[in-house]
## 1
Amino acid sequence: MSDSSISESESASLLSKKVSRRDMLKTAGIGGVGVLIGAAGIGGVMSLSTAAAPEENKRGDTVPFYGAHQAGIVTAMQDNLYFASLEITTTDKRELIKLFKDWTVAASNLMKGKPVGDLSSNGFLPPKDTGEAEGLSPANLTITFGVGPSLFVKNGQDRFGLRSKQPKELKDLPKFSFDALDETWCGGDICIQACADDPQVAFHAVRNLVRIARGKLIIHWAQTGFQRTKNAGNVKETPRNLFGFKDGTVNPDSKEDLKQVWVQPGDGPNWLVGGSYMAVRRIQMYIEVWDRTTLKDQEETFGRKRMSGAPLGKEQEFDEPDLEEKDENGKFVIPETAHMRLARGDGTQQLLRRSYSYAGGMDSKTGSIDAGLLFIAFQRTPSKQFIPMQQRLAGLDKLNEYIIHRGSALFACLPGVKKGGYIGETLFN
């Protein structure tokens, strides 16, 4: 249950270009006048009553769309997430290819802070862009596309003549012990992950991409997510989950480690080289129960100190844990059921975690708060990384007393695309 990070040098380079919205307002000389702020999840709004954001700020808040890999995987985590799992309704492969081509143009524009199309001069036609991001900066928006196993074969049918291209690794995740999966939150033919430092920018991206797909796709499930904002704390500090513990301490960040994120030549079909597998788990947290648990039990559940994030028995967050250390009673300092110990295993299975907290109001069945984590992890080989790790956690993890897995999906995130090409081109050609 950890989040993602990139190397400090990459992060510093990206953040040095960042101009906060607060600084933008000061520069514009308008202070707090004409600003409306809403903070209720994805509905939160920050709009200017007059001029759009200066062009120089937009350039500082932009992540490139084109490249060898898709953005939104090793990109520094943004503040907000809008994730959508989609079902294909068309049966025409040509329509599907055209959709991916249209999405390529639209996503490139959206990540530059531009609308998806020119405003129609005919007032009797709907505008091509829905308009709620007008005047906002790109807010480091990234859009990441993935395809699920059901894109290839569904109910035994080869839907688009792609059966032979389905990677062996791309199949529904197994049901693990203690799973209580709800099909409402499982699977999908295609996914869109939109991350941005502004919730309205992320929502606008998914809304317009889905609108472009009208008649070809429908939303199967969707989830908003958040982490602490860059204005609220030190961006170099590991963010915390809703249990109050640091989330994302262990993440691959070196060039060598990132080989465990990207699909390599020889791993499977060549069309996925440069892509990555995305495991998604919607995890509900029983926060009321957790809030009545002693600090000692909480720390032993995670295997880390709450305040510093250090492994038990150590002082600093990034200290190497000693899994053999025992106390005066002969018990392991880091309990055998600790989440950190089980997730670590022998240390060879690495995931790039890019998870976001969510809050969905009240759970109508229990009357408790519906809140938790949309766990997202990228990897090269799910059968050797996420699956064995999750099998260990499902068997012994003490954290299972406080969480339940409600949703599950696996997607193959497509390789990046060069200018002049389109996302998914290697799959469809």
Note: Confidence is low (pLDDT under 50) at residues 2-58.
## 2
Amino acid sequence: MIRPSGLAETASPPQPASPWWDEVRATLRLSAPLVLINLAQHGLVASNAVLLGRLGAEPVAAGALATSLYLLLFIGGIGLTSAVAPLVAEAAGSGRAGGEGAVRRIVRAGLWLGFLLGAALMPLLWHMEALLAPLGQDPSVLRDAGTYMRVLQWWMLPALAFMVLKGTLAALQRPAAPLVVSVGALPLNIALGAFFAFGLPKLGIVGVALGTVLTECLALVGLVIVIGRDPVLRRHRFFTSLWRFDAETLVRILRVGAPMGVAGVAEAGLFEAATVAMGTFGTVPLAAHAVTLQIAATCFMVPNGIGQAATVRVGRALGARDTAGLRRAGAVAIGLGFTFMAACAVLQLAAPRSLIGLFLDAEAPGAADVLPVAVGFLAFSALFAMSDGVQSVALGALRGLQDTAVPMVIALTGYWGIGVPLGAALAWGAGWGGQGIWAGFCAGLLTVSILLVTRWLRLSARPRV
């Protein structure tokens, strides 16, 4: 075939893909399974809230009180063990010889840390009633919460081990195994919780907790089996010589992870303090607060997964000394997190009653009183949604740089220096009640998000050679 003159010369050669679009695709490819894992894992807590909602307003309040304290300590543990992910990502991204051995040592030390931490925290959980009794909680709610916690606390050990392995596989950009196990665990948790709570012998609130503990143990076993059957993952030999205590690597994890744990506790502590404070206003505000937190936390799982992907993408670029790549990774992740949470804010403002209905049975005892209070809280939840998403992703990007100490200070300042005092002043001083506490959330999260993004912009501009 003869082409018209000049066509060959004017045809444009294929253009290389934009590195920004490549980064968007890579971040979405990694964050999508991480988001699904987070949603499935949060689904354990959310499904428990749904089951408790079928038992009535008082079980919802008791479950919220127990779960908020459990998550406060558990999130601190996650922060400490989350240092495994950026350290593994850097080791994998560097391409240096002996990388598999370095990864194995980090994983082994992370599992040791999770076990030691869980063993240290569980006695505090066992004595929950004594810890919270001086804080003015309803005695019957506190009693039920303590009963619930003495079963739920056994969730801690397998859950921390699962988090170490999940972070490791994410850093190796192979999140399929924890995704499969996490998705499978969610319906199992619902089935077991419903069976023990409403079946025979009708354990009620205790049955919901028992279902979650059994589910997490089975999920951990399932993940270990899946890793053992994967030929690529099997070569890392994660579980070889687990009995060896590697103090040097453990200290390295603690150096990066301790500030992460403190920052996590600072944020979780903000919500725990709010839950305890809400309990002083009565069962109805506490139940409404619990429902609103479930909605907000469910939305948060998406930017949380994007932030975990940012940790990996930035960490691998750091290992490769790719300054432009790590800046793109952080910018793309922050943009994705903001966009999603903006959409969540619109949904919370547009359809609050539909969202609340997912977590509160309108026919359950006391639900009619809880619904309007929860609608008011959800309006404030929509306001802080975007700040919450941005701070989570920016924090993930900074963790990829293994910058954790200053973000810890930022978290403490924003949450406890601004959020808590302002919330208390509005709740009691201005007479806003529970809505004042949620307004404090908004102010604290906005401050933290601005400061973390500012720090990311400054640190990511430094050349890596």
Note: The first helix runs from residue 7 to 10.
## 3
Amino acid sequence: MKKNNLRILVSLLLFIAIPAFAEKISIQDAAEMAIKNNKDIKIAMLKTEQSKIDVDKAWSKKFFTVGYTAGANTYLNKNFSKTGEKFQHYLTLSQPIYTGGKLKLGHEISKENLTLSQLNLDKVRKDTILDTVKAYIDVYDAMSTLEVLQKSKETLNQNLKTQQELYDLRMTTKPEFTEAQRSVADIDAQIVEQEGNIEVSKEALGILIGVKDSSQIEIIPFGVDDNFTSTVKLDEDLAKLKTDNTEYKIAMKQNDLSRKNVEVEEASFKPSINGVINYGTLQGQDRFGNILKPRNFSTSAGVNFSWDIFDWGQRKNNVRYAKKTQEISSVQIDQTLDTVTANMRKTYFQLRSLEKSIKALELAVQKAEESYEMEKERYAYRLITMENLLQSETSLRQARVNYAQAKLKYYYLVSKYGAFLD
């Protein structure tokens, strides 16, 4: 996959930098760092390099090899006394002439495996980018929730201050004042917990992008157009899955490989023929020094013919097994397409649903803010209890959290939808 194609997934996001931040990592920076530093990607790249070596190895098997053979034998009589010695050494050149197509198929399979490795590398990159986007969003989510909690703390601290003044003037009851204290202690506990969630989320992001000191990570808030589905055509995108989706291309390539493996097993029924040329001291010499004399060198040429005739049906069973494997891979092609199609449709409709929900949740925040202001006024006239007021504040806090989380989920699903066509 080219670098520009890798950015398609992240480019769906509209990045909005907030000037108040100092040193930061944007979501696009995080994706590029993951591509460069992630260990899963490095492993997949090394496996691709191994596949390239396998192609070279399979190619070289089609051509001649040269070997050297040397031997020494001592002959003994029945009393184990030496009666003579024989020495020989020679070079052998062996060239495959006919293998029933096994060498050709082996080279083709190695190239298919290289393509499969490259596709798997693309998939690892894509999955890593998605994981990075999710991890980045998790940090953003945790930080957004912390901001909501801190905003609530300001409100609750102000409320506690008011209650303290009223209690000192004997204008409120002890239970009312105690409830105000409890609400502040509770929000403090939630803030501490959320700060821990931020550190954990940053650590997960740091592992993906290769940053050891994850506590130093500062993210940049971002946003996307909330009408993403209006810019896509689902039916056209579904039709592109057969040409663009990585998982489907992997399934197709695996089917091609299984088909060639059937041909390899069928080729085992055919004989093998090698051309052989030997040069050196081919006949045994009775003196070691004689094997080194050029006048004793000779050349021989010939053909080696081998054919496995009977093996109790082992090769036949290997062919049957390979054919069943090929049938399985054929079914998996359809299975992969069905799964990817269903997931893409599901993601699309989740996005459409969220587009409606986000608007409703935004209105819910506005309503909760208005309700809280009204409850504060009612409490000032002692028309409601402190518990009622704090419940209204809790509802406002949850409405803000729900709205922020829905938007972040929407951002992730936008990236996920784009990944289906990558």
Note: The CA atoms of residues 2 and 307 lie 47 Å apart.
## 4
Amino acid sequence: MQSMADAETADTFGCHALVGGTPKVSFWTRRKAIDTITAGHADSHQLKKTLSWPHLVALGVGAIVGTGIYTLTGVGAGLAGPGVILSFLIAGAVCACAALCYAELSTMIPASGSAYTYSYAAMGEPVAWFVGWSLILEYTLVCAAVAVGWSAHAHGLFKMIGFPDALLAGPHQGGLINMPAVFISMAVAGLLALGTRESATVNMVLVFVKIIALIVFVVLCLPAFNLAHFTPFMPNGFQAHVPEGAAADAAKVGVMAAASLIFFAFYGFDAVSTAAEETKNPKRDLTIGIVGSMAVCTAIYMIVAAVSIGASRTEVFSKSEAPLVFILESLNHGKIAQLVALAAVIALPTVILAFMYGQSRIFFVMARDGLLPRALSKVNAKTGTPVMMTLLTGVLAAVISGLLSLKDIAELANAGTLWAFIAVGASVILLRLREPNRPRVFSTPLWPIVAPAGILGCLYLFLSLPGKTQLYFLYAHLIGAVVYLAYGMRKSVLAQQERA
């Protein structure tokens, strides 16, 4: 009788799947075996287990609560008006479906790599490559977007110490390069390179600062709450559409257009899954980290969005790059506004830290699998971290954040994330059908409904993105296809084992 592990090994190396005991050629010729997915790597390519569930919850909250609430609340309100609350609800519901799927897969496959690793086990190497490429797009661009958001809050500080205007804004704003964004990208990369536990501990402290600042904002704005600000509730309608009289390539507006952008504000829980190999008790702690961080952050977002609209009209605060600070100043809380801005300056780097951490691990695992040069997956003996990949991620984020605008970066990051979430939902469905009896520490409730709902929701949000964003996403993946065909397809570990 062939064991489950033997059957998967046959599928991985012999390009077969067992169906009713009869070998059948698989469409996806290379799949990782779940039972041996982290085995066989030398110590120099293994990550150290240093994290527990409080670190993971803080990592998730640190990743989720950031530029989305401090900055994109205003951008979303400009697209949807008060209906931005529905945008938050829709984006949160889609992310909740994805989070439940992530929780099942991360506890069943406790390995770094997130959606890339799950896709490798469920759908094969070609799909895994493109999911990994989407994650690279997501994580690097998120780091860059948050760096730009941080720069908006730190602008006054850098100007005070003598930075010229040309070095405080990118070309899209008439400057040369956004140096504050470059600075924070490289500073966070340096912190991560020092060690995972050290950076996670700093992250926990900064997350606490960030949450306190949001509580202060809510308390001070509640007395000014005015229900009249919620009328008209959806001035630009529900469906994503280009406004009448605008150019065909103009940005879409409406509740769904805002949801497709605000989606950026919700994801971050997937960064928790990239910490699987560094978690002491992954079967328990990953579920707490993923589901717990999503629950906490959804509540925070809904409250802050509602209070923002109640305290100020959307057409007013939507024009500000730092809307929460703007609202406090308009209510004559100037000193508190400065403290909230300072809290954002101090705490927004937690988002960069979480996503840069995740990106370096995605790079690391793809290099360890041979889809990228394996030399990049070397772990530093002292810190237990992939220093080279971490610094490379920092450089990429610094270049992008120094030159591009927040909105363009966020929308393109969303495109990559949406396709990664689609792959996770599809992986849950395929593994449920192919291996229904495999032990699952956490089971996605009502998976035949939740997983397809997550997939369809992500497709709808993707179609609500601007046409140019979808086009850029296609171009990025055409480049990815060339890289895979020229290098990864021949150099992957599985390809070499097949030739052996």
Note: The CA atoms of residues 364 and 377 lie 5 Å apart.
